[in-house]
Write a structure and sequence with these properties.
Elements lengths: L6 H14 L1 E7 L2 E9 L7 E9 L8 H15 L4 E7 L3 H9 L3 E5 L3 E7 L3
Parallel strand pairs: 3-4
Antiparallel strand pairs: 1-2, 2-3, 4-6, 5-6
Length: 122
């Protein structure tokens, strides 16, 4: 997850997402409760990258992240991507479980992060 160190870096990150990433959003009664940002612009390797998965705490365990992830996978497929990659914190067991259920597998890691990927059937 991106943690900005100041307001300028948050604005820069938001602008980057707005111009280069696809966003899958979950809204309830005009309130944004979850989103996934996915880059589907590497047409050389046909690899998409999920850079952000966020759900408001009051909306945890309601299937929002699962539904958003399914939509992001479909968006990547429609964009012609053959696989999706992501990075997740080693200590985030719930996110790792979510990604495993969605067909992602670990490909490498560091002391802090696990890198996961999923093939997309075309």
């Amino acid at each position: 997850m991106f943690l900005p160190d100041n307001l300028d870096s948050l604005h820069t990150y938001a602008a980057k997402l707005g111009s280069h990433a696809l966003r899958c959003e979950a809204w309830v009664a005009q309130k944004l409760v979850g989103l996934i940002a996915i880059y589907c612009n590497d047409h050389g390797t046909r690899t998409a990258f999920i850079s952000n998965v966020s759900v408001l705490p009051d909306w945890y365990n309601r299937g929002i992240a699962t539904q958003l992830l399914a939509r992001a996978i479909e968006e990547a497929r429609l964009a012609g991507m053959h696989e999706i990659r992501l990075e997740v914190d080693q200590d985030n067991a719930s996110a790792i479980g979510l990604y495993c259920k969605a067909g992602f597998g670990k490909v490498s890691g560091t002391a802090q992060s696990i890198f996961m990927q999923r093939c997309i059937r075309i």
